[in-house]
Design brief:
single chain, Rossmann fold, five-stranded parallel sheet
Length: 183
């Protein structure tokens, strides 16, 4: 089994990139959903990359990795992993060490905090306090990512000028990693 990880701060475009990668290899890639105790945002009602559960339900799951962000629990279920040849997962930098897979392609997306702030605020789903929390977490995460930069297979600095290229260049970088034909 191969695993593709996408790491980056809130607002950098991880979800958009994940969606485009899944469109490029629809019969090959399975995205592991995150279980979370965070209530769903209005724009997440029809997404399948997060499963919203109670804390009690969360505690019954067997997880590959777990995390806590802004008081909410997040975890990747270990159950469906072995059924798929290529698994896609979004995770924070400090969680990379919790994944113990031999064949991993790790994509890192970073950006200037002003760019992230404007993208998060454009969503209009969070209070000013929540935006400030996300930016503080983003700064910390990007600092960690820069320290371990060499561990990433592909490192991309997103800006307003180049954000349209992130998908194209990420897919190009992934092409040699993917199985030679759709399964």
């Amino acid at each position: 089994m191969k695993i593709i990880t996408i790491t980056g701060p809130s607002g950098v475009g991880k979800g958009y990139l994940k969606d485009r990668i899944k469109q490029r290899w629809p019969n090959t890639i399975y995205e592991l959903p995150w279980y979370t105790t965070r209530p769903p945002r209005e724009d997440e009602q029809h997404r399948c990359d997060r499963i919203h559960v109670t804390a009690r339900e969360f505690a019954t799951k067997r997880m590959l990795v777990t995390d806590e962000v802004a008081g909410y629990l997040y975890g990747l279920s270990a159950d469906p992993v072995s059924e798929h040849s290529v698994v896609l997962v979004e995770l924070r930098c400090h969680l990379l060490d919790q994944l113990h897979f031999k064949d991993t392609f790790s994509i890192a997306l970073v950006a200037h905090t002003d760019f992230l702030r404007s993208r998060i605020m454009r969503r209009a789903t969070e209070s000013d306090h929540e935006v400030k929390q996300r930016i503080a977490v983003a700064e910390n995460d990007m600092h960690r990512m820069d320290i371990v930069r060499a561990r990433f297979s592909f490192f991309y600095e997103v800006s307003a000028e180049n954000e349209h290229l992130v998908v194209e260049q990420s897919i190009q970088a992934l092409t040699s990693y993917m199985p030679s034909k759709e399964e």
